[in-house]
């Protein structure tokens, strides 16, 4: 069989036959004696090397620093109840790693207060918005405004669990978290119970509950699927009134701007650190 181009491939190297040499016909191929083109030249026998004096073993190489950018992260774990400060030292929520849950109806200012509070703290703090995470679903998004059903319920629960995973990972790596959600007091297993399972018993819930007129006014300034009807806002606000008498701290921010509400939130959290709420 004739090869169209070049010479046939060399046979594969087999153990015991030495290193693979040049291909047949190559410029460095040796010819046996008597073959055409043999000049009689031969290589001299190898000269044994001079004996070398024994050398001390080299010191072990220092471990190389990992420069790949891989950073080991502690795994997220349930958040424990914060330890109360010593009696002589007041609680300092601004410099403490915390997990906070802001509860309130649509238009209560949860997202605005959470962002401001997270940005103004002395320690790194992340804001995790349930609505933002819920809207990660682009195709097949279940909008509760078109009707509450099993699909929208499942997406809400999935978003809460995702937020809980994120919060635990942030907290395990030294970053505080503030979450916001419209948790209803008449659904404790799904609401606070779910957050407690996802984040841990150290989560500090605080309720933002301004008056109905304020909530309606703020809701009217919204757009998209986050704007609710006045009837729906009034119904949610009425259900949120069930938090009174629950033992959770409640902030009426009807007459407070975002910065003032965040300051009151710090005061409430200082009391919660000193005496964690039972929930």
Reconstruct the topology from this structure.
Elements: E1 99-103, H1 110-119, E2 125-129, H2 130-134, H3 150-172, E3 176-181, H4 192-199, E4 204-208, H5 212-220, H6 230-240, E5 250-251, H7 258-274
Parallel strand pairs: 1-3, 1-4, 2-3, 4-5
Please characterize this protein's 3D structure.
30% of the residues lie in helices and 8% in strands. The protein has 279 residues and is α/β, with parallel strands linked by helices. It has a domain at 93-274: 3-Layer(aba) Sandwich (Rossmann fold), CATH 3.40.50. Strands 2-3-1-4-5 form a five-stranded parallel beta sheet, sandwiched between helices. Mean pLDDT is 79; it is low at 1-5 and 17-31.
Q: How many alpha or pi helices?
A: 7
Query: What is the element string, with H for helices and E for strands?
Result: EHEHHEHEHHEH
Number of strands: 5
Provide the gyration radius in Å: 36 Å
CATH architecture of the domain at 93-274: 3-Layer(aba) Sandwich
* Mean pLDDT score: 79
* Overall CATH class of the domain at 93-274: Alpha Beta
Q: Report how far the terminal alpha carbons are from each other.
A: 87 Å
Q: Can you summarize the main beta sheet?
A: 5 strands, parallel
Short description, anyone?
This protein has 279 residues and is of the alpha/beta class.
List the main descriptive attributes of the protein structure presented here:
279 residues; alpha/beta; Rossmann fold; five-stranded parallel sheet; 7 helices; 30% helix; disordered N terminus
